[in-house]
From TrEMBL:
<dbReference type="GO" id="GO:0009236">
    <property type="term" value="P:cobalamin biosynthetic process"/>
</dbReference>
<comment type="function">
    <text>Catalyzes the synthesis of alpha-ribazole-5'-phosphate from nicotinate mononucleotide (NAMN) and 5,6-dimethylbenzimidazole (DMB).</text>
</comment>
<feature type="active site" description="Proton acceptor">
    <location>
        <position position="315"/>
    </location>
</feature>
<dbReference type="InterPro" id="IPR023195">
    <property type="entry name" value="Nict_dMeBzImd_PRibTrfase_N"/>
</dbReference>
<dbReference type="InterPro" id="IPR003200">
    <property type="entry name" value="Nict_dMeBzImd_PRibTrfase"/>
</dbReference>
<keyword id="KW-0169">Cobalamin biosynthesis</keyword>
<dbReference type="InterPro" id="IPR017846">
    <property type="entry name" value="Nict_dMeBzImd_PRibTrfase_bact"/>
</dbReference>
<comment type="similarity">
    <text>Belongs to the CobT family.</text>
</comment>
<protein>
    <recommendedName>
        <fullName>Nicotinate-nucleotide--dimethylbenzimidazole phosphoribosyltransferase</fullName>
        <ecNumber>2.4.2.21</ecNumber>
    </recommendedName>
</protein>
<dbReference type="Pfam" id="PF02277">
    <property type="entry name" value="DBI_PRT"/>
</dbReference>
<comment type="pathway">
    <text>Nucleoside biosynthesis; alpha-ribazole biosynthesis; alpha-ribazole from 5,6-dimethylbenzimidazole: step 1/2.</text>
</comment>
<dbReference type="GO" id="GO:0008939">
    <property type="term" value="F:nicotinate-nucleotide-dimethylbenzimidazole phosphoribosyltransferase activity"/>
</dbReference>
<dbReference type="InterPro" id="IPR036087">
    <property type="entry name" value="Nict_dMeBzImd_PRibTrfase_sf"/>
</dbReference>
<keyword id="KW-0808">Transferase</keyword>
<keyword id="KW-0328">Glycosyltransferase</keyword>
Length: 360
């Protein structure tokens, strides 16, 4: 059995759960009236093992790679867009360049396997394993050594961030054609029929979606499904997906807050979950993507999207925007006045449960 070395992800400790819930319920508001923000505050407190969690030096890792499965016509976009967009991100452009700046992330672009030679840049992390995964309709996308290297690269990147004081890491991606490996992994890891796992990606026609489903279905039949998660990731994944999965695993091992983006980064979490199930406890699901299959991923992992804005851009944009809510949840837990502080009678303590009538 192929495993990762020195990986220890602890389950969340329940000792603080009751204390965190009590603190939240003592805020000067009707019980539960801040909805999911209360759940986020409790989860973050449990991740950090603290009644007063803190958010420190958030980093956005937008991880990029190319995919030779594009040779099969699974994407309508030219593959050159991958490296061109990476250059755009490095210069602060694109959705993720803008939103990282607006919402307080230090953006890093990770070259996990782009078919291009980048010049050094302060925002660029060189973690290239090879120039794109192989066409997995004909052969495995990665060798086992390549997949393990990508996983280790992700772990090493996040370990360095943790050592520098980061405790929040958002994950985004860039890679023309990468909805194909994400769809294949969705089918392989959850058992969902390929036809339901495949969507239009960046704009396929109905005929294109049908071709994509056929290509992926044939590839899964050809290679088979292993009982080892890393072997499945190597057969059908992407270098950016494997790198993100490794980063998520290391983040959980370091008790960091993971913020997923959409379809591609959640496929990386599926892979990470198959390797070590405790990883999911450290993940916040930023939004509900419009890509078919994403809801199934989130439901399978037991998650609840923070936002539903109709996003399907990728890059980490959903994770960046959702961070505003994450910050609000932590601020509520740490700074919002309690009933005692505001000298207001707490009706919950009197056995009376009220709702916020201002929203009725």
């Amino acid at each position: 059995m192929i495993k990762l070395d020195n990986l220890n992800i602890e389950p969340l400790q329940d000792e603080l759960a009751e204390q965190l819930q009590y603190k939240i319920d003592q805020k000067a508001k009707p019980v539960g009236s801040l909805g999911q923000m209360e759940r986020l505050a409790k989860q973050i407190g449990m991740i950090q093992g603290s009644l007063t969690p803190q958010l420190s030096k958030p980093v956005m890792l937008t991880v990029a790679a190319d995919h030779h499965i594009c040779d099969e016509g699974v994407s309508p976009c030219p593959v050159e867009i991958t490296w061109q967009q990476c250059l755009n991100f490095l210069n602060g452009g694109g959705g993720i360049g803008l939103f990282s700046q607006e919402y307080g992330f230090d953006l890093k672009v990770v070259d996990a396997g782009v078919n291009f030679d980048f010049q050094p840049h302060p925002r660029l992390i060189d973690a290239k394993v090879r120039k794109g995964t192989r066409n997995f309709s004909k052969e495995p996308a990665m060798t086992m050594d390549e997949c393990l290297q990508a996983l280790d690269n992700g772990r090493n990147i996040v370990a360095k961030l943790a050592d520098e004081g980061t405790n929040v890491v958002g994950f985004g991606e860039m890679g023309i054609g990468n909805t194909s490996p994400a769809s294949a992994l969705l089918s392989v890891f959850t058992g969902l029929d390929v036809d339901k796992a495949v969507g239009p990606g960046s704009g396929l026609t109905t005929e294109g979606v049908m071709n994509k489903a056929r290509v992926l279905g044939d590839a899964i039949k050809q290679h088979g499904i292993s009982d080892n998660a890393i072997e499945n990731l190597a057969r059908f994944g992407g270098l950016e997906i494997a790198t993100i999965a490794g980063g998520m695993l290391e983040a959980a091992a370091r008790r960091m807050i993971i913020i997923t983006d959409g379809f591609i980064t959640t496929s990386a979490l599926l892979a990470a979950y198959a390797i070590e199930p405790n990883v999911v406890n450290y993940a916040l699901f930023s939004h509900q993507s419009q890509e078919q299959g994403h809801k199934h991923m989130v439901d399978y992992l037991g998650g609840e999207p923070i936002l539903d804005l109709g996003f399907r851009l990728g890059e980490g944009t959903g994770a960046a925007v959702a961070y505003a809510v994450v910050k609000g949840a932590v601020a509520m837990l740490n700074k919002m006045t309690s009933f005692d502080e505001a000298a207001i009678v707490n009706t919950a303590n009197l056995g009376i449960r009220i709702t916020d009538e201002s929203n009725n």
